[in-house]
Design a protein that fits this description.
Blueprint: E1 5-9, H1 15-26, E2 29-32, H2 33-44, H3 48-57, H4 59-73, E3 79-82, H5 86-89, E4 94-99, H6 102-110, H7 124-146, E5 158-161, H8 167-181
Parallel strand pairs: 1-3, 1-4, 2-3, 4-5
Helix pairs in contact: 1-8, 3-4, 3-7, 6-7
Length: about 180
């Protein structure tokens, strides 16, 4: 029996790229809360960082996004879920956390033209500041709302540092560990 794989991690760690490739490789449906957040932010005419700050005050934003994952957890299907907290809402999933060195992450984000709802940064230092602010905002909110510390790696079945790995290498590590776990 297949089970869902939840992928979380640092901004710029490659979560979405890895999750999409795994979805294709394993034949599992892909879902991304980041895409949902970017879509909500774009509809509101704000950046994802601004949406994070708004979510600090408006619980309905997290509830809307989290509700989809909670429903997925109970529907009996297996998914690849790219999300900061899906591992928390899908406790029986194979939980993966991707980490990356912050300058490398900032360079990835700075060069990513697909992040249309995020600010257009002037340089990598500006990206580092923005991702640190977003990470801190999320960490504080998740601690307060869910009593979950996204900096604690003990809840994960696998932690992969993507800084010096190709997408194929990251995916292979995950597939190997997943096959052993199911």
């Amino acid at each position: 029996m297949k089970k869902s794989i939840t992928i979380t991690g640092s901004l710029g760690s490659g979560k979405s790229t890895v999750a999409k490739k795994l979805s294709s490789d394993l034949g599992l449906t892909y879902y991304s809360t980041g895409s949902a957040q970017r879509q909500i932010a774009a509809q509101m005419g704000i950046t994802t960082l601004q949406l994070n700050h708004l979510a600090d005050k408006d619980k309905s934003i997290d509830e809307k996004i989290d509700g989809v994952i909670k429903n997925m957890n109970n529907d009996g299907n297996a998914y690849i879920v790219d999300s900061r907290l899906a591992w928390h809402f899908m406790p029986a999933s194979f939980k993966v956390k991707l980490i990356v060195e912050k300058t490398h992450a900032a360079q990835r984000i700075f060069n990513d033209n697909l992040r249309s709802s995020e600010s257009k940064y002037k340089n990598v230092d500006e990206v580092i500041k923005a991702i640190e602010e977003r990470r801190q905002s999320e960490r504080e909110r998740f601690l307060r709302v869910y009593q979950v510390d996204i900096e604690n790696n003990s809840a994960f079945d696998l932690v992969v540092d993507t800084t010096n790995l190709s997408i194929d290498e990251v995916c292979q590590q995950i597939k190997n560990a997943y096959q052993k776990a199911i």
